[in-house]
TrEMBL record, chain A:
Family indicated by similarity: Belongs to the CSN12 family.
Coiled coil: none
Location of the PCI domain: 254-458
Pfam families in UniProt: PCI
Annotated protein name in UniProt: Protein CSN12 homolog
Organism: Lophiostoma macrostomum CBS 122681
A Gene Ontology molecular function term of the record: double-stranded DNA binding
Superkingdom: Eukaryota
UniProtKB/TrEMBL annotation, chain B:
The protein's name in its UniProt record: 26S proteasome complex subunit SEM1
Species in which this protein is naturally found: Lophiostoma macrostomum CBS 122681
Comp. bias intervals (Low complexity): 1-16
A GO cellular component annotation in the UniProt record: nucleus
Keyword annotations from UniProtKB, A to Z: Nucleus, Proteasome
Entries under InterPro entries matching the protein: DSS1_SEM1 (IPR007834)
The keyword Nucleus belongs to this UniProt entry's keyword annotation: yes
Matches recorded under Pfam families: DSS1_SEM1 (PF05160)
Compositional bias (Acidic residues): 33-52
Lineage: Eukaryota, Fungi, Dikarya, Ascomycota, Pezizomycotina
Function in brief: Component of the 26S proteasome, a multiprotein complex involved in the ATP-dependent degradation of ubiquitinated proteins.
Length: 464, 88
């Protein structure tokens, strides 16, 4: 036991929170794959508490006050029990005979440990720099809860299957029991951080606020409960005594901005979403490409709406997956290819729906249409030069027959598999819509069957 | 892995060598977490502003959604042909 607690005591003496988090990790370090096993085997249920207590008491590294020593003793006993469950589950899984509720046992044991840490921190028994071990433990709790729920769902559906129930009956039973419980524990931790009244910011738990908020976001997203995520954003927004945002660690800030951005996106507040996601993008760690990809997944549809911008080839080429799903769409928007756009949207529909960006992307069709109509305008050419006019200030023809737009539209949708053909009235309606949305400036003269476009800025923001 | 600024604030410590910790116990079935849009844990807790920049910076990431007009001639010809057909 003395040996097993050596790394903890060293980290404690150096006041390194992450070292303590390592000592309480459910995963053995790469350079010592047998660590968990050795630690577990070094004692037994009857002696663990005494042995931990003694090891903490009689060591040459760190002097622990009695109250703190008692706190760590309880924590390490909880850790030892959790490791026991983890190792048993691992062994059973390797031998292919995992019991029905074995992963639930792992979760429950880890939950005990987590609660123990929360209790000791809220009682003020642990030094402030040990807060980081609470984060890590909470993060693992979330993962164990997900695994436990997966196992429970599997067991339930097996039972239901053998007793002849339908799948959808099973799914109405609480499926995420453990993760929901975890959400409540995380919420407690969040309040513990946010509500710290310690006036000394150097040792305040407030530094954990964004980290805990992020864990809650991850959990609520998994539970598909976005409104609870919004509550967190609101709670933080009204705090007046948090340290300045820029002073929090970059990892906390980038993650937070990503989630706040996605939440704004889902509420169709695209300008806020753009601001947050851009901030996350700007500060993201360059080697974390998966996270960059996630940011762009929302930033691309966002900018399409707010700025009518599309990602460049340079940008997409760095992310093969995004290239595959957005590439064709972007090409079709640019060329005003409506059938192509519809096909590209349909081709990646599953992915888009899963990411909740389908409806936003669908609005990109207006941009594709705008580009097609713009082409008709450009193809119309210029008015004859009048006296005194030069090539430089000549004007484009702004009176364009409806028939031209109708024809272009049929060309644009005439491709294979479109099956669309529009009546002239419908084309007119569509043009009216474009004018209404501000994508095209002008009016329709029904009498002459003409569209009369503005001489200046017929298609705002596109240079003509 | 380095520990940056462990002194002042409780959070300014580099993360451990926790590699986005999928618990070792349940590595058998491929984790479905990849599937959803969960933001991954960063391997570091903090990094300086200047290390956030992507190589190449933020220039040329976005472009206008409309095509520049070089293909327009072709389209104009095509459109005129279609219109001619219409008039017949």
């Amino acid at each position: 036991m003395q040996v097993a607690l050596e790394p903890f005591l060293r980290a404690h003496a150096a006041q390194q929170g992450w070292g303590i988090a390592d000592a309480l990790s459910p995963i053995a370090p790469h350079d010592n794959p047998g660590r968990l096993y050795e630690f577990y085997r070094s004692t037994n249920e009857h002696q663990v508490e005494n042995e931990v207590r003694n090891a903490l008491k009689y060591n040459n590294n760190s002097r622990l006050a009695p109250k703190e020593a008692a706190a760590w003793t309880e924590i390490f006993v909880g850790y030892w029990r959790a490791i026991g469950e983890i190792l048993r589950a691992e062994e059973a899984s390797n031998q292919g005979r995992l019991r029905d509720r074995q992963l639930v046992d792992v979760y429950e044991a880890w939950k005990e440990l987590t609660n123990q840490i929360v209790r000791q921190i809220s009682n003020g028994n642990l030094p402030p720099w040990s807060l980081i071990c609470m984060y890590h433990t909470a993060n693992y709790l979330r993962m164990f809860a997900i695994k436990a729920d997966e196992q429970l769902a599997k067991v339930k559906s097996n039972v239901a299957f053998s007793s002849g129930f339908q799948d959808d009956i099973v799914s109405t039973v609480a499926r995420n029991e453990k993760l929901e419980e975890t959400a409540r524990i995380l919420n407690k931790m969040f309040s513990l951080c946010l509500g710290d009244r310690n006036p000394d910011m150097g040792s305040s738990r407030k530094w954990g606020t964004y980290y805990m908020a992020n864990l809650q976001f991850k959990t609520y997203f998994k539970l598909k409960n976005i409104s609870l995520s919004r509550n967190i954003v609101r709670t933080i927004a009204v705090q007046t005594d948090l340290p300045p945002f820029e002073q929090f660690p970059t990892a906390h800030r980038v993650t937070y901005k990503y989630y706040v951005g996605v939440i704004a996106f889902l509420q169709e507040d695209y300008s806020k979403a753009e601001t947050c996601l851009t901030e996350a993008w700007d500060h993201c760690l360059p080697e974390s490409t998966r996270n960059q990809e996630l940011i762009l997944t929302y930033l691309i549809p966002c900018r399409l709406i707010t700025k009518h911008n599309i990602p460049s080839q340079t940008l997409l080429s760095s992310y093969p997956h995004l290239q595959r799903i957005f590439g064709p769409l972007v090409t079709c928007i640019k060329s005003g290819d409506l059938s192509g756009f519809d096909n590209a949207l349909a081709a990646a529909e599953d992915e888009f729906v899963k990411r909740r960006i389908y409806l936003t992307l669908e609005r990109g069709r207006d941009i594709a249409l705008r580009n097609l109509l713009r082409k008709v305008f450009l193809a119309g050419g210029y008015e004859e030069l009048k006296e005194g006019q030069t090539e430089a200030n000549r004007v484009r023809k702004t009176r364009i027959p409806l028939a031209h737009f109708a024809t272009a539209f049929r060309m644009g949708t005439g491709g294979e598999g479109s099956g669309q053909s529009l009546e002239d009235d419908e084309v007119e309606c569509m043009l009216a819509n474009m004018i209404y949305k501000g994508l095209m400036k002008g009016y329709i003269s029904r009498e002459y069957q003409m569209v009369v476009l503005n001489k200046k800025g017929a298609f705002p923001g596109t240079g003509v | 892995m380095s520990a940056q600024g462990t002194s002042t604030s409780t959070t300014k410590a580099a993360a451990s060598d926790n590699k986005n910790g999928e618990p070792a116990t349940e590595q058998k079935p491929a984790a479905p977490l990849e599937e959803d849009d969960e933001f991954e844990d960063f391997p570091l807790e903090d990094w300086p502003e200047e290390e956030s920049q992507l190589p190449g910076g933020n220039a040329h990431l976005w472009e206008e959604s409309w095509d520049d007009d070089d293909t327009n001639e072709e389209f104009a010809v095509q459109l005129r042909e279609e219109l001619k057909k219409l008039q017949k």
